[in-house]
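User: Please fill in residues for this 279-position structure.
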């Protein structure tokens, strides 16, 4: 693709669009403004639940449909869902029952609210980081009888061995999937249980179809393992500088700057086509 040929930019939130202080800074705002000026659609593609993604969208003035829940949902900010891949109730039940045997926080997103049966001292800061309330329910299995968008499991990241615990739980839940769901380790202490077809890459393809934008005219920017299928699917795939070195390779570009500064660098290079900014 020639520089300036981008028509859609999809950006991961945590570790990418947010700055190193986990805030929306001037670089993120400027990247969005450049896209607006050039008539390029700008959106987020995140593992966050859609209601949390909408908080970020509202602050940046994003109107393009959002990719959230690790690709399980596409939603108009403040409007309807355009695509939902939900976990069947029985599949959610199996995963929840397995997780109850481990010392982990358990959260379910129903599509309307985020709920837990394990309120603890970590729940409030987690809720504040997402910018949304978390409600307590007596029984997650009962709350997911009609299905759920995602199940999130969080080990205590301050406890020794939390990463190994998450790995054991991941293996146990995967063995129960019967092909109905997948388990993604998005952070060393955090697991997400999603519909088997949910991924950011597939969601990007679906969003391009909805917007009648060729996939080759899209740019995806991220920093983590959960972003790779989206980065590889896009016409231009970009890793910000703070991404793990092992993620580099193939046609993936890598910025010199980290976090939102890297997003701005990529937008300048491939939306504005600035000379000397090509990655």
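Assistant: Residues filled in for all 279 positions:
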């Amino acid at each position: 693709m020639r520089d300036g040929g981008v028509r859609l930019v999809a950006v991961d939130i945590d570790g990418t669009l947010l700055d190193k202080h986990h805030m929306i800074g001037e670089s993120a705002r400027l990247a969005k403004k450049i896209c607006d000026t050039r008539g390029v659609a700008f959106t987020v593609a995140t593992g966050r639940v859609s209601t949390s993604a909408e908080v970020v969208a509202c602050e940046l003035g994003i109107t393009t449909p959002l990719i959230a829940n690790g690709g399980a949902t596409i939603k108009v900010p403040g409007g309807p869902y355009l695509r939902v891949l939900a976990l069947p109730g029985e599949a959610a039940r199996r995963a929840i029952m397995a997780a109850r045997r481990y010392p982990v926080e358990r959260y379910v997103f129903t599509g309307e609210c985020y709920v837990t049966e394990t309120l603890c001292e970590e729940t409030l800061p987690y809720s504040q980081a997402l910018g949304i309330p978390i409600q307590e329910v007596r029984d997650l299995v009962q709350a997911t009888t009609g299905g759920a968008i995602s199940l999130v499991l969080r080990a205590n990241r301050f406890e020794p061995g939390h990463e190994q615990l998450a790995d054991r739980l991941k293996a146990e839940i995967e063995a129960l999937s019967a092909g109905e769901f997948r388990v993604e380790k998005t952070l060393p202490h955090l697991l997400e249980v999603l519909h088997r077809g949910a991924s950011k890459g597939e969601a990007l393809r679906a969003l391009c179809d909805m917007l009648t934008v060729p996939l080759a005219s899209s740019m995806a920017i991220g920093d983590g393992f959960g972003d790779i299928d989206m980065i590889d699917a896009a016409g231009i795939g970009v890793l910000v500088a703070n991404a793990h070195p092992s993620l580099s390779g193939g046609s993936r570009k890598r910025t010199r700057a980290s976090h939102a500064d890297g997003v701005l660098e990529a937008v300048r290079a491939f939306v504005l086509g600035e000379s000397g900014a090509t990655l």
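For context: The first strand starts at residue 8 and ends at 11.
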